[in-house]
Design a protein that fits this description.
Helix content: 55-70%
Shape: globular
Membrane topology: Multi-pass membrane protein
Strand content: under 5%
CATH superfamily: MFS general substrate transporter like domains
Structural class: mainly alpha
Main location: membrane
Organism: Rattus norvegicus (Rat)
CATH topology: Growth Hormone, Chain: A
Subcellular location: Apical cell membrane; Basolateral cell membrane
Number of domains: 1
Protein name: Solute carrier family 29 member 2
Radius of gyration: 25 Å
CATH class: Mainly Alpha
Length: 432
């Protein structure tokens, strides 16, 4: 997800130094009008190379889940991400030319997000079989990752630690988090709740069918109860009652049709694509360039973007994701959701007209810091809320046995929206 963009912002000083050809705490990057990160279009490339593999490998995962066990995909992805982060941490101490360092970094970003796509798609597939509350918690956890990165950036700035040491800490910390994730996943089979939802049951037990048959009561004509032996798997029920009791599920051969599921959730999926398209088109490619309008140099000018861009976005995004734990509005039958999602496109010109000094075409209309902060508040909370809302509504629009497919499809469209937004960020930055 876009939590990696926040980490890229947190490492900005470190990357600026490496791309300028310095890798020493005693050296500082040159102070030309065009920074090394701008020369390499660093934020844009990180955004694009984060989202393209997410799209491609999310699509690939829809085929992998049929031939590769779920535990292999999840554990394998976690281990691969762990090794890549460890390699990136080791590169902090290795002197490389700017061009080679940029290439290795972009390759690392590509492969990390490739395995993240497989991991995320597999986890969303599992969540599709669970109550929607757990999808909300999962999405809230992703929001917390961005908050953690923003706080790490602020702590580094406040402590005055040199960029090289800070970057080493940034890369080692995810390694610890991934190790904890592996331990937590390995503990799932020991939890009764997880076994109940995650264990595949292609056919319901005969005892369960007999119990459901007993619950139907008696024959409607003469009031004589039907015995469990007579009303077992061969009981002829009304289709609506079969659906209500879940008896028709074992009789469905094979896996649910992807196209059938897509026809049910296409509008919700489109809303998810539009939400992420707007968000990634300006965050962080445009928003990270906004500076304070205050003329006096000081702490505020140093902390303005880390606080008002990265920290504020991630906190409000997390808050928006958490709101769906209390209410879901609009619901899955409302036509208001697409309208509200489309209104978010207004944020694109609003941010482009904020105080961005490095511009050649558009004027600056919103000079004051208060405008940018207000825009960011609404931008972030609406992003988190609509992302979580669409991910929760999609499983409710399909039958129970189709929810896993719906979860995998929504993950693909999530990645599609991220990729579209990352691609548009190049255009919007050029229009400045």
């Amino acid at each position: 997800m876009y939590w990696l963009n926040t980490y890229a912002g947190a490492w900005h000083t470190y990357f600026q130094g490496r791309l300028a050809g310095t890798n020493s705490s005693a050296e500082t990057p040159s102070t030309n009008h065009t920074s090394p990160t701008d020369t390499f279009n660093f934020n844009n490339w990180v955004t694009l190379l984060s989202q393209l593999p997410l799209l491609l490998f999310t699509l690939l995962n829809s085929f992998l889940y049929q031939c590769i066990p779920e535990s292999v995909r999840i554990l394998g992805s976690l281990l691969a991400i762990l090794l890549l982060f460890a390699l990136t941490a080791a590169l902090v101490k290795v002197d490389l030319s700017p061009g080679l360092f940029f290439s290795i970094t972009m390759a690392s970003v590509w492969f990390i997000n490739s395995f993240c796509a497989v991991l995320q798609g597999s986890l969303f597939g599992q969540l599709g079989t669970m109550p929607s509350t757990y999808s909300t918690l999962f999405l809230s956890g992703q929001g917390l990752a961005g908050i953690f990165a923003a706080l790490a950036m602020l702590t580094s700035l406040a402590s005055g630690v040199d960029p090289q040491t800070s970057a080493l800490g940034y890369f080692i910390t995810p390694c610890v988090g991934i190790l904890l994730s592996i331990i937590c996943y390995l503990s799932l089979p020991h939890l009764k709740f997880a076994r109940y939802y995650l264990t595949k049951k292609p056919q319901a037990p005969v005892q369960e069918l007999e119990t459901k048959a007993e619950l139907l009561g008696a024959d409607e004509k003469n009031g004589i109860p039907v015995s469990p032996q007579q009303a077992g798997p061969t009981l002829d029920l009304d289709p609506e009652k079969e659906l209500e009791l879940g008896l028709e599920e074992p009789q469905k051969p094979g896996k649910p049709s992807v196209f059938v599921v897509f026809r049910k959730i296409w509008l919700t999926a489109l809303c998810l694509v539009l939400v992420f398209t707007v968000t990634l088109s300006v965050f962080p490619a445009i928003t990270a360039m906004v500076t304070t309008s205050s003329n006096s140099p000081g702490k505020w000018s140093q902390f303005f973007n880390p606080i008002c861009c990265f920290l504020l976005f991630n906190v409000m995004d997390w808050l928006g994701r958490s709101l769906t734990s209390y209410f879901l509005w609009p619901d899955e039958d409302s036509q208001l959701l697409p309208l509200l999602v489309c209104l978010r496109f207004l944020f694109v010109p609003l941010f482009m007209l904020c105080h961005v000094p490095q511009r050649a075409r558009l004027p600056i209309i919103f000079w004051q810091d208060a405008y940018f902060i207000t825009f960011m508040l609404l931008f972030a909370i609406s992003n988190g809320y609509f992302v979580s809302l669409t991910m929760c509504l999609a499983p409710r629009q399909v039958l129970p046995h189709e929810r896993e497919v719906a979860g995998a499809l929504m993950t693909f469209f999530l990645a599609l929206g991220l990729s579209c937004g990352a691609s548009l960020s190049f255009l919007f930055k050029a229009l400045l």
